[in-house]
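Appendix C. Worked example: 3-ketoacyl-ACP reductase
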Amino acid sequence: MSEGCAFKDLDFSGKTVLVTGGAQGIGRAIVEAFAVRGAHVVIADLQLPLAQSLAVELSAQSCQVEAVCVDLAESRAVFELIQALEQRLGQLDVLVHNAGYFPLTPFAEITPSILDRTLAVNLSALFWLTQAALPMFRRQGQGCVLVTSSVTGPRVAYPGLSHYAASKAGVNGFIRNAALELAGHNVRVNGVEPGMIATPAMGNLGDDQLNENIASRVPLGRLGKAADIAGAMLFLASDLATYITGQTLVVDGGSTLPEV
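Step 2, the predicted output written as C-alpha cells:
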C-alpha cells in the first residue's frame, strides 16, 4: 500500500466514504487509506476502468470498495450519484471531493469551455455534492466534508494555471463559509492544500528535470507523496479532529514558508 503504516491505529469500520477522482494519484492514495482501515469506499471517477481496477485490487485484500462512473461537471449527475449511494448503502459518513481539472493553459489562451469545466469540476461540484449529501448528514446527526484544495491560488501562483488557481481560491472560501453554516448540523468541512506532489499529473507540469529542480527548492528536500495527502485526510476525518472545521491543512514540505 502506498500510504505505509502511518495512522495505522485509525479505524473507519462501519463508515461509508465517497472519494471523487479516486482512480489514480492523490485520490487513489485516499481510497487505499480509508479502505485498509475498514471503510466502505465508493470511488466516483470519470475513468471507470481505472477505478474498477483499483476496486478489484483492494477487494482482493478484503477491503470494501466499489467504483462508479460520473462526470462531476454535470450537476444532475452529482445529485444522482448521491441518491444512488443512499439507496444502496443507506449512509455517507465522509465525503471527499478530490477530483480536479487543470489543463495547463496560458492565461491569454483560456477559453470559455476550459474555464467552465475547471470551475464546474473543481468548485461547483463541491457545492452540489455537499448539498445533495446534507439531508443524509442531518438524519445521521453528523457528517464530514473534505476537499483537496491547493496552495496554488490561495497562497501561490503558477504560470498556466490561472483558471485552476481561481477555482481553488473559491474552494477555500467554500470551506470556511459552509463550515459556518453547517456546524449546527454537526457537519464539519475542511480541506487539504497540497504543494507539489509526485503523481502522474506532474507530467502535465513539466519534465523530470523541472520536477527535480522543484524538489530541490522544497525545504524538506523532496516532492510530496500522495500518501502525505491521504494521511492528512485521515486525520481530518478521524475522531482526533472532531473540533476542527472551516480549516485547510497545508501539506507542502514547507514550500510556502517565507525565505529570509
